[in-house]
Structures are given as C-alpha cells and as structure tokens.
Amino acid sequence: MIAWLEGKLLQRTAQSILIATKNGVGYEVFIPQSMALPRLDDDISVYTAFVVREDAQELFGFSTFEERETFKMLTTINRVGARTALAILSVYKPDDLRRIVAQDDVNALTKVSGIGKQTGQKIFLELKYKFKADTNLASINLPGSANTGVFNDALTGLLNLGYDNQSAGEVLSEVLQKEPDLDVGEALRAALKAMAKNK
C-alpha cells in the first residue's frame, strides 16, 4: 500500500496533481481542492490513501496524516465513496467535522457539492456515531449547550462576511466561554473585535 509520496510537483489539474519521484516514476494523486500546493517543479510530499475499485485504482493525497485518516473513516460511511469523501474534505477540515458533530449541525454537509439534505443528514448521523469514541472531540473548545444556537447564528454571520469556518469558530468559542450570556448580535460584534485585534 502506498501511504506516503515525496517528489516534484510536475503538473496540476482541477482535481489532481502529478508527482514525479526521484526514481523516475510519476503518480497522479487526487487531492482536496483546499489543499495548498507549492509551485510547479518544487518539492512536495503527501500522505496518501490507495483506493481500489472494480473499474479503477486511484491514489488520494493529503497534507496531514489526520486528513488521510479522516478520509479513510469517511469512506466507511454508507453512500460516501472516495470522491464524496474528498469533496467533504475540500470544504471541511477534520476539526471542522468534529465541531459540526459537537454542535449537532445536521445540515452542514449540504454545503458540500453533490450532497443534498437527506443524504447529508444520513451521513451526519453515521459521522456522529464514528466520532463518538474519538477522544480528540473533547479537546475542541465549544460553547455550552445553552448558547449553541447563538454560536451557530453568529458563526453563520461571520462566514457570510468571508471569514473561514475554523478561525471564526475558534474565536466565537473563546468569546462565548468568557461571556456566555451574549445574544447573537453581541457575540458577532465581540468576535469581529477579537479577530481585528489578532490581525
């Protein structure tokens, strides 16, 4: 099984990259669209997952070992093939998926291209079950259940303003842990203020 690749970035397409290794072999690797890449001909290394189907053998690449393991976990979920798992990781990092589960954000996966509401909810339920035993879930700072609704609404506001899900979620969590009685507007203003200070 191919678990790691290192070489030169030879080419890039909309869905994949071509890595040329030192021994003269080129591998096509499908990657999340959010993956940061070096310039062509620069060194690159990726964690990989090798997927064998009846009609194809494909290699999928990731920046971190955690992303690779999350990809493998996602492909064990009913109705989630390798391409769907890759599409999910193009939108959400592993910590984002844990946060979605912790917040019971049932409809979050519908933001992923090709996933409708019904399928998204089914995937969410299986994802929740699989993350239940994941000890890393407890390490994520989340607001208490009493203000989860405020958190979700304020997070939506920040995303609409162009902030990314992970940094906005982390700042909001800190704000609501310090001041749990804030309403949506107050939480949004406090988060914006905090992010302005961090720039």
What are the key terms here?
alpha+beta, 5-stranded antiparallel β-sheet, 7 helices, 199 residues, 5 strands, 43% helix
Q: How many strand segments? A: 5
Give the % helix.
Answer: 40-55%
Shape assignment: globular
- Tell me the strand percentage band: 15-25%
Low-confidence stretches: 135-146
Structural class: alpha+beta
- Arithmetic mean of pLDDT: 85
Total number of helices:
7
Taking strands numbered 1, 2, ... along the chain, how are they ordered across the largest sheet? 3-2-1-4-5
Radius of gyration, in angstroms, nearest whole number: 19 Å
Largest sheet descriptor: 5 strands, antiparallel
Spell the H/E element sequence: EEEEEHHHHHHH
Distance between the termini: 43 Å
Describe the fold and architecture.
With 199 residues, the protein is α+β, with helices and mostly antiparallel strands. It is built from seven helices and five strands. The chain has helices at residues 65-74, 82-91, 94-102, 117-131, 148-160, 165-178, 184-198, and strands at residues 4-12, 16-20, 26-30, 43-52, 57-62. It has a five-stranded antiparallel beta sheet, with helices on one face. A hairpin with a 4-residue loop joins β4 (43-52) and β5. α1 (65-74) packs across α2 (82-91) and α5 (148-160) packs across α7. The radius of gyration is 19 Å and the shape is globular. The termini are far apart.
Topology (elements, then pairings):
Blueprint (H helix, E strand, L loop, with lengths): L3 E9 L3 E5 L5 E5 L12 E10 L4 E6 L2 H10 L7 H10 L2 H9 L14 H15 L16 H13 L4 H14 L5 H15 L1
Antiparallel strand pairs: 1-2, 1-4, 2-3, 4-5
Helix pairs in contact: 1-2, 3-4, 5-6, 5-7, 6-7
